[in-house]
Amino acid sequence: MTIDIRDKPLRVHLSVGLQGVEALGLRTGDVKQDIVTAGILGQLGDMALRHDRRFISYSRRKQWWIGPKADMLRNCGFTLQRVVRAVDALERRGLVEHHKARACQGGSGFQSRLRASRHAFGSSEALWVEAVGPTLILRDADKQIMPLPDVDMVRRHQRQLDDMNGMLDGIDIGGPHMRPGGLCDTGRGPLLRVGPIILRRIFCRGSLTLGGRYYATFQNLPKDIRATLTIDGEAVASHDHACLHPRLIYAQAGHVLPDDFDAYKPIVEAGHGEAWTRDLVKRAFNTLVNADTPTAARSRIAFELADHHGDNVLVAAAEAGPKPARHAAWHTIGQRYGNEAARLIAMIHAFHAPIARYFASGIGVRLQFVDSQMAAAVTKRLARQGIRSLPEHDEHYAAAKYESRLREAMHDTLQNTLAKLASKVTAPVAGVLTRKTAHYCGTQAPSGPHSGRSLSCPVPALEGSCVAVRAASTLQAVVPGGRLLSSDVPADEKKGGAQNSPILQRVPVNDLALGGLLPINGAAEALAGFRGGILPAPLRAAAKHGLRARGLTQDRAARLLGLSRPQLTNTLVGRFGLGRAPAARLVALLGA
User: Fold this and answer.
1) Coil, strand or helix: which one is 421?
2) Spatial distance between the Cα atoms of 165 and 34, rounded to a whole number of angstroms
3) What is the pLDDT of residues 238-270, one digit of tens each?
């Protein structure tokens, strides 16, 4: 486990209250100033009580405080003058260790920082840290907190959140690892704060329909510690939705999966020669779902592979090292594990071809909003039955004696959600998703997941959908009824399938790994034979997908082709044609 040694930013989520400020002899008579002092003491005291010796960083620069990063602090009454006065007062009383940085623009690259001195809060019984601050939070694309708009949707979300917190008010969290003051000793570092339980809902990317998951302090506990907790003196039982996000995506594509569907295990079984586990494949799948670009997905999956293979030094440098060291570590991870990441991504695309278009599209934040609505529905349904439960994204905790009701509520909520998503599909999809047998084998590749052996395993297949299999350094993509051809398929079936298939082509492995299957409805040789003029519709689709798969923006692609961006845009929509030289460069760029 990597230990985070980085400074914590100054936040407004905890406070010791005005009584705590008075108990420490720091009241000034200015209520706003005392509230700021109480907030800083809350964070310092919480870290001291948890034996967390990291520093809290803050800025003494006016330019920082007028910028967007300080919006949340300013909205809660934290200003540069009040923070500086509070910190200086704490330093004069000997309650903090304070490292003051120069307050000039450009500076030295360091921020001011402080932490509680070792004797500051150890003997103070009057110090009671409580949760404060807003419970409904909206972040922009840079993860900076934004002011909430004055609209009905905000008021609706806030009422729902207040109702849920009211259901959990006074809930007693206990267990063998719990300590006085709502702290939990995991035996793995500083104590973690669990109580009081207050749910916060965080939306992202400036939208009230993206993200929106519920967060609480108990979610920071390791899973094995959470299993030992008690709710109001009763042992807990937990239940989660299996393969929730894959099932939601398939429902959006118009397919209803069986309850025992496993989106990850068949990929592990197909990975001959690869030391992949179900947990690794699950993390890789979720990365593909949550990533905004193919390049970002591949980079993160390479990091997951480094962690999976136990490259702890490299992982630690990429997570918590200085910025130059982090950049160098990520570069090394890409070089060392990039090819394996591409193979894993290719396998996921092959098994989930019907939903491949959703990968690396940023759909994850939309799914988070859906599962947050599901969590609220389950919590409210159980509350109407007098059962208090703790939501954790797609998992819920409740007293063990109510486990059957918990499972029933979660199952019914999931079925209702899947039905709603499937009913919103505007374009009907031909065929019904079934579990068929696909045969995977390679062409005597010297190494890799298919070294000349065949494997039969159940995978989801859709009539007429395109699937792929890795063979040496290329991927063979065919569409004979949604099934892969292999050496154990009769020769006449192979021949017939190839002739009747609307797609039969060989594509580089990175095209599949980085962007999914190419949407080409003609032979691959057609693109190689393109010499200029208006691009036909299938080739325009192929060109768009190929540029996206290589992580090229339109600006970058236009420069490589010797065109302006408007010229490239008009070419890709079929308004303008291409001359011979740009056409040749496009063919070369796409590797046709």
Assistant:
1) helix
2) 27
3) 999 888 999 999 998 888 788 888 899 888 888
DSSP string covering 343-403: HHHHHHHHHTGGGGGGTTTTTHHHHHHHHHHHHHHHHHHHHHTT---EEETTEEEEEGGGH
Helix then strand then coil, in percent of the chain rounded to 5, is 45, 15, 40
Among candidate residues 54, 37, 129, the one with its CA nearest the CA of residue 89: 37
Question: Model confidence over 534-590: pLDDT tens digits?
Answer: 887 767 777 777 777 666 788 888 888 888 888 888 888 888 888 888 888 887 777
Domains delineated in the chain: 8-131 (1.10.10), 136-241+384-423 (no CATH), 246-365 (no CATH), 434-515 (no CATH), 525-590 (1.10.260.40)
* Residue 591 · residue 475 · CB < 8 Å: no
Which one-letter amino acid corresponds to residue 566? P
Of 6-15, 285-294, 333-342, least confident by mean pLDDT is 6-15
For the chain, the C-alpha Rg in angstroms (whole number) is 28
Tokens (6 digits) for 263 = 């989106």
Mean pLDDT (whole number) for 126-144: 74
Rounded CA gap, 265 and 536, in Å? Answer: 40
Per-residue pLDDT of 463-480, as tens digits, reads 333 333 332 233 333 322
Q: For residues 528 and 389, which has the higher predicted lDDT (pLDDT)?
A: 389
Tokens of 434: 């079934």
